[in-house]
Design goal:
- The chain is 41% helix and 20% strand.
- Strand 10 and strand 11 form a beta hairpin.
- The chain is globular, with a radius of gyration of 32 Å.
- The protein has a domain of 185 residues: ATP-grasp fold, B domain (D-amino Acid Aminotransferase, Chain A, domain 1, 2-Layer Sandwich).
- It is of the alpha+beta class and 311 residues long.
- Strands 5, 6, 7, 8, 9, 10 and 11 form a 7-stranded antiparallel sheet that branches. It has a 4-stranded antiparallel sheet with strand order 1-4-2-3, covered by helices on one side.
Length: 311
């Protein structure tokens, strides 16, 4: 199992309430639907704090992974980039590079979560979102794309290097990630395939880039936290520029987009202009010749009619 127990509110309100009463003290993370960048997220273990069933708010509620793998005492997750270029036959590509995002407060197994009595400190401890932690004064920006194992955002290469130095099996972890990606896509394949058959003329007309957020627990088990449609490609640091820039280049190469070369375009444009000018000149000469021929034919016909004696 790689997906924490999850409920959709308000439809599964009763089932969530039963689970929370059956396991008092267990934490659950609430994420509002159609939101991003950590907005509206809160963690609680109290059934009384569940949004009311008759409310208009839609939430995705998951069991909170309370024993995350920590590095230097900090919680982190991984952003894995996945491209789908065809759904039938299914083609999935996993980018080998990515980002590791660290929280800015050291982790403790506290009952307080973001949005509760823990305040901002709890938010910066439980959530790894860059958009949340960058607001913390303790956030450390990565200033060099080469030194990618510093600050609160690392490359996956630097993360895996540290894992190996700590005796962790990074290859086994990556195999888990590949398995999670494949099974997750297959789970949604029937609906995606049906939509593609209805709205996509050919299999080469579209592609999609996804951002899979993966958390590792202290037993080195990987958990799927969420899948992001159209993940952010904004660049706020040299490390972002390096990883996301290369990602976009590789993605465009993968889907067959030809690079724009100005010199070739300029030369082709000049040839086209020249040929077009020649065509226009030839066309004008042809029209003049046709007009003269028509005028001559009309004159000859008139002269013949004038010369003919009356009946």
């Amino acid at each position: 199992m790689f997906l924490p127990r999850t409920f959709i509110l308000p439809n599964e309100y009763q089932y969530l309430q039963q689970e929370m009463h059956a396991e008092p003290g267990k934490q659950w993370i609430f994420k509002p639907a159609a939101q991003a960048q950590g907005r509206g997220i809160f963690v609680t273990s109290k059934a009384s704090e569940i949004p009311q069933k008759n409310s208009n708010s839609n939430y995705v509620v998951s069991e909170y992974i309370s024993n995350p793998l920590l590095l230097n005492g900090y919680k982190f997750d991984m952003r894995i980039y996945v491209a789908i270029t065809c759904i039938n036959p299914l083609r999935i590509y996993i980018y080998e590079e990515g980002l590791a995002r660290f929280a800015t407060c050291k982790y403790t197994q506290s009952a307080n979560g973001p949005g509760t009595a823990g305040g901002n400190k709890s938010k910066y401890m439980h959530l790894t979102n860059y958009s949340v932690n960058k607001k913390n004064a303790a956030y450390q920006h990565n200033k060099h794309d080469i030194q990618d194992g510093e600050g609160n955002k690392w490359s996956l290469t630097a993360l895996r290097k540290l894992m190996r130095s700590l005796g962790l099996d990074d290859m086994a972890i990556w195999k888990q990630i590949e398995d999670i990606v494949i099974k997750t896509v297959i789970a949604g394949e029937p609906q995606i395939n049906q939509a593609c058959e209805q709205y996509v003329p050919t299999s080469n007309n579209c592609f999609e880039l996804f951002g899979f957020d993966i958390l590792i627990d202290e037993l080195q088990q990987c958990w799927l936290i969420e899948v992001n449609l159209s993940p952010s490609l904004g660049c706020d640091s040299p490390l972002d520029q390096k990883i996301k820039g290369n990602l976009v280049c590789d993605l465009f190469t993968l889907i067959g987009i030809q690079p724009f070369e100005y010199r070739k375009f300029s030369t082709a444009e000049q040839k086209y202009t020249k040929l077009n000018g020649m065509y226009s000149a030839n066309a004008a000469q042809g029209l003049k010749g046709a007009a003269k021929a028509s005028q001559s034919a009309a004159s000859n016909a008139y002269n013949q009619l004038s010369a003919k004696p009356p009946q």
